[in-house]
């Protein structure tokens, strides 16, 4: 945990310097609606160097540099150096660094840091989840009508827009409120600490969700892929909440799929 938080805090100093400096960040498009900048690349380099130095041989799955197979086949880091790039590049202070450690197919440690709010979420398998050193738990609300549900939107060139609209209509008609905040790692962390009651999104990658999956579980929550499958790390979608919210959300998503 110390190795991970040290690396994350170091990278966050670089992101803080770059926030608001968009004209100097060599922004480019990886695809329609999918941006990358010097801020993402610098933060990823810092994370990779720090983690490699502390744990030589571990593999990497990184948003910007891809996969690096390590000599240690049982450990790999899943790194999103800047989750919420679009927010960041628009000056919206809702973005995070997310680092998850996978050991033999299971996420065993996760760190999500929001530099703009100085909020550090950490989780270690079997040891609970914490926000700035205070234990966190998923919300206890169990009526959909009281629930605030976060989601992610597909955008130009990405995802099944029709399916999303059907799912959103199905959820919207049954819950107290819906939100789209724009950084998947923070959406997961917010469910873990009870700010949101549930969250679903399709079209994600392991670097977006690795740390958050553990955060939810260690906070007493339930998480699956958006179709109820048990491998959200590799399936590219998530649905989560407390036990009841998770189950009810899955029912609404299933209804939308038909
Ligand atoms: C994105 C954010 C966003 C989600 C997208 C992700 P990135 O991550 O998490 O909330 O809707 O699907 O790709 O690209 O900013 O690291």
From TrEMBL:
<dbReference type="GO" id="GO:0046854">
    <property type="term" value="P:phosphatidylinositol phosphate biosynthetic process"/>
</dbReference>
<dbReference type="GO" id="GO:0007165">
    <property type="term" value="P:signal transduction"/>
</dbReference>
<dbReference type="GO" id="GO:0046872">
    <property type="term" value="F:metal ion binding"/>
</dbReference>
<feature type="binding site">
    <location>
        <position position="80"/>
    </location>
    <ligand>
        <name>Mg(2+)</name>
    </ligand>
</feature>
<feature type="binding site">
    <location>
        <position position="63"/>
    </location>
    <ligand>
        <name>Mg(2+)</name>
    </ligand>
</feature>
<dbReference type="InterPro" id="IPR033942">
    <property type="entry name" value="IMPase"/>
</dbReference>
<feature type="binding site">
    <location>
        <position position="208"/>
    </location>
    <ligand>
        <name>Mg(2+)</name>
    </ligand>
</feature>
<keyword id="KW-0378">Hydrolase</keyword>
<dbReference type="GO" id="GO:0006020">
    <property type="term" value="P:inositol metabolic process"/>
</dbReference>
<comment type="similarity">
    <text>Belongs to the inositol monophosphatase superfamily.</text>
</comment>
<dbReference type="Pfam" id="PF00459">
    <property type="entry name" value="Inositol_P"/>
</dbReference>
<dbReference type="InterPro" id="IPR020583">
    <property type="entry name" value="Inositol_monoP_metal-BS"/>
</dbReference>
<dbReference type="InterPro" id="IPR020550">
    <property type="entry name" value="Inositol_monophosphatase_CS"/>
</dbReference>
<keyword id="KW-0460">Magnesium</keyword>
<dbReference type="InterPro" id="IPR022337">
    <property type="entry name" value="Inositol_monophosphatase_SuhB"/>
</dbReference>
<dbReference type="InterPro" id="IPR000760">
    <property type="entry name" value="Inositol_monophosphatase-like"/>
</dbReference>
<protein>
    <recommendedName>
        <fullName>Inositol-1-monophosphatase</fullName>
        <ecNumber>3.1.3.25</ecNumber>
    </recommendedName>
</protein>
<dbReference type="GO" id="GO:0008934">
    <property type="term" value="F:inositol monophosphate 1-phosphatase activity"/>
</dbReference>
<keyword id="KW-0479">Metal-binding</keyword>
<feature type="binding site">
    <location>
        <position position="82"/>
    </location>
    <ligand>
        <name>Mg(2+)</name>
    </ligand>
</feature>
<feature type="binding site">
    <location>
        <position position="83"/>
    </location>
    <ligand>
        <name>Mg(2+)</name>
    </ligand>
</feature>
